[in-house]
Amino acid sequence: MHAEEKFTDATWPASPETATLEGKNKFLGFWLFLGGETVLFASLFATYLALKDKVPDSSHKLAKDIFELPLTFVATMLLLTSSLTSVYAMYHMKNNHFQKMQAWLLITVLLGAAFLGLEVYEFNHYVHEFKHTFTSSAFGSAFYTLVGFHGAHVAVGLAWILTLMLRNAKRGLNLYNAPKFYVASLYWHFIDVVWVFIFTVVYLMGMVG
Amino acid sequence: MANDQSNSANPNVNLKYRRKKNAEEMKHQVITFTLMIFFTLLAFLAVAYDGFSHWFIVPFILLLAAVQVAFQLYYFMHMKHRGHNTIALFMYSGALVGAITILTFITITWI
């Protein structure tokens, strides 16, 4: 079984992402990277929790004054749904249905782009409405670093998935690119894992006070 | 793992079985997703509703987040499947270091 081999539905491996040595290594290496990302985000969460509502004077807004439930809710639904659509994409990858996989990946990308658009709107709103900026307070710095780092991950994820889709559009599925698609979907799920903590710890706990 | 498909003499019979197995797993994923949406709604409602005390809401929504993350990791990212022991080691090590960092920053720092 080599990477560029042509497969039929019947001969396509059950777990194409780990069918080659390269795939196995990618899979293991990528999870190690995710373990590291966990520590990175945990340290940003720790910083945020330590600096939450730490502002120089009372003219600055606090978490409970700036966050709004509806916006966070819509963003959360977009990202959660995009996680399911990428599961659908991997389902079709395992069934050797390249076009269906591409279609679900495109939906994932669109949902992710909508999430990112909302985040840009949100940041812009905070800066102009509340003068809550990266340099206005320790709270502002910690907030934008944590949420911005997540947003940057979303942007990288979108660029990554789009690049894979375009690069392999004419090639179709094989054991060379199956691990690439699989690892990109893992990354996308990890972005959602981080968002679950962000909407809970930053937004919901912020609104509770 | 690589040759899971070759345990039958006739690959097409095996294909039918695999397709069915994949479809079944996809059904479980959709159920997982529905539960995740439900937990998210619960968390948002708990915050939106005025009657609950802060001491109830915070642990409640943190618990919901932990369950959701477990769903994401074990179902969507397939950690419940065989061959994920080393990966579990990576993630739990990361989570342990992360938890200690957070504990430190919210208890023994003063700003």
Automatic annotation (TrEMBL), chain A:
Main location: membrane
Gene Ontology molecular function: any one: cytochrome-c oxidase activity
Topological category with respect to the lipid bilayer: Multi-pass membrane protein
Location of this chain's protein in the cell: Cell membrane
SUPFAM superfamilies, sorted: Cytochrome c oxidase subunit III-like
Transmembrane annotation, as ranges: 30-51, 71-91, 103-121, 141-166, 186-206
Keyword ATP-binding: no
Source domain of life: Bacteria
GO biological process: aerobic electron transport chain
Family in the record: Belongs to the cytochrome c oxidase subunit 3 family.
Protein name per Swiss-Prot or TrEMBL: Cytochrome (Ubi)quinol oxidase subunit III
Organism: Peribacillus glennii
Organism ancestry: Bacteria, Bacillati, Bacillota, Bacilli, Bacillales
TrEMBL record, chain B:
Known EC number: 1.9.3.1
Assigned keywords, A-Z: Cell membrane, Membrane, Oxidoreductase, Transmembrane, Transmembrane helix
Topology of the protein relative to the lipid bilayer: Multi-pass membrane protein
Compartment list: Cell membrane
Transmembrane segments: 30-49, 55-77, 89-110
InterPro entries according to UniProt: Cyt_c_oxidase_su4_bacillaceae, Cyt_c_oxidase_su4_prok
GO molecular function list: oxidoreductase activity
Coiled coil spans: none
One GO CC term on file: plasma membrane
Top-level taxonomic group: Bacteria
Pfam families membership: COX4_pro (PF03626)
Main location: membrane
This protein's name: Cytochrome c oxidase subunit IVB
Gene name as annotated: ctaF
